[in-house]
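Job type: complex structure
Entries:
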Amino acid sequence: MKEWFRKLSLPQLTAVFAVPYVIVCLMALFPPLYLWASGGTSLFLGMPATMWYWLVIPVVCTVVTWILFLVEGVRGELDLELADLDELANEQGASE
Amino acid sequence: MSSMTIILGMMAVFYACVIYVLYRTMQTDKPSFDEYAVGGRRYGAVFIGMSYVQSFWPGVIFTGFLGGIGVRFGVMIFYALAYSVLGLVMMYFMANRAWRWGQRYDLRSQPDLLQLRFNSPWVKIVASCIGLIAIMPWVILGIQSLSVLFQVASDFKWSITASLVAGILIILVRQYWTVRMGMRGLIMTDMLQGSVAYIGGAAIAVIMMAAGNSSPAPYRNLAHLPAALLHVPGDGGSYGSFYMFALIVMGVIGAMCWPMSFQRIYTAKGVRSVKKGTLWALTLMTGFLAVICVFALAVAVVPGLKDNPQFAWFNVLDMFGGPWLVGLGCVMILAASMGHVDGSIQVCGTQIANDLVNHWRPLKDRQLTVVAKVAMVAYMLIASVLSYVLFDVPRLQLLAQMSYYWVIQLAVPLYFGLFSRYGNKQGVLAGMLSGSIVATLLTLKWDDAIPALGGLTAGLVGLAVNLVVFAVVSLITGQSAEEKARVNKLFDQTSRKNVRTARTRQPAPVTAAVSVAASSNEATAAANSRIGQ
């Protein structure tokens, strides 16, 4: 699994994680969706469905962002020193 | 023992604990400006996370939101949960570029970053002024909300004036330490205050919902909610269908526009800390707010609370646990409110010294710290006087609403500045100013929703104008080749593609050490040249 994430290109990684973020953004911001869920009285675990709808958004956001953090850690994107980035930016500038 | 003695005593004990933490954690009486403004960029994830939540949610979550929105309007309260969490996700995505630019160019404030990106001190000055003005009404409301707390604590035996003076005094004494210690004082006490306010608040709500018959607001109340409480604005009623959208989208984009929230990025010791801190904040925010929102609905059907929903929190605590629990509830509001006011004042002092005074009269490190301290004292005194003079002035709420609309105008330069190479200083300045003016004028007529626009707010219309003006003016005025190269270099320095490639390399230790030293020298030189601009 780690190797699979390491091999993903940036556009592929972005596409994988964009899906859940787009879904929760639509749930929170797209009026036809939240108006569809509004007023839902059927109970699930003793709580009306419309409340569950709004609870799904933060839970998905939190879980997906934790996973993204772990993946970025596996790919080594979190701890890079400025010096390493400078070196690469300079090389790029020279090659251009 | 009277309930007043119990509640005030509990608040006094907690206040003493906060002062003790400040006293114990003070390392130096003469911090450098970097230490004073951003805590020396050395804090870990848990501190960053808690500090962010403190800067974001004041004590009003227990009164204005839980009671004023949850108890009165029901499921609408969930908009607060949605925008808080989505706003934090934005912070996560900003972390890489914002922190790395911050470290490289010694940035200490959000306007500092905007100056770097758009290469204009005027962008910094305008952005800083918008932030400083927008924060003031919220500091005033924060101090005034403490007066309500003292009224409850005194069982309404203290007059409004006496309660207000007590609220002002408690903040003034607390500020003595914030002024001395700067960011470190905030971060240390945020941990204590945040734990009590958010973890404690959520725990009490869970216990009350789980307590069954002995609780006035058990979980089973949720099965008997009236239909009116389950509809969001726009689903029937007088609001348009875009009202909920407007509330959430303003919260999401506004989250990082508040200077005190953004400042937390620069207190971290690395990108990993910022991101992990964001995740802790996300987890805490989700846990706390989800419980509070559900609890608000469970409280909404308790008889007798609708007449005075702002006091619903205190009333249900009193029904369940008497004055001891009310005392704990008051301590939570005190903790959340103090943290928020402190964070606001600290960032204002930093911005006045760093963004304004330092622009017209470049200062040395020690002078910057002194000016920041003086600015914090002055800002606090002005807020204290205004909170007294403007007490019971209903238009203050309007001013607070307007200030929210102003601060989201920073979203255009902030988001375009961090996520796109498009735009220039002319576009940013014209956009921010036109957006703020439009938002102000429209708010005078429609302080809430604009019915003709389906429930959109004046702030969002201002933001749309801001965006269009920014895009058009930037397109017309364009970027010089030199400016394009400068912006490209900035982005290349933090490109994720570069991060990936560089990570796969294994530089020899000696080379790496030399490279770090060279980079450090360059950063110092860049910072010096920036200050000299």
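Summary: The longest strand of chain B covers residues 449-450. Chain B touches chain A through 71 residues (CB under 8 Å).
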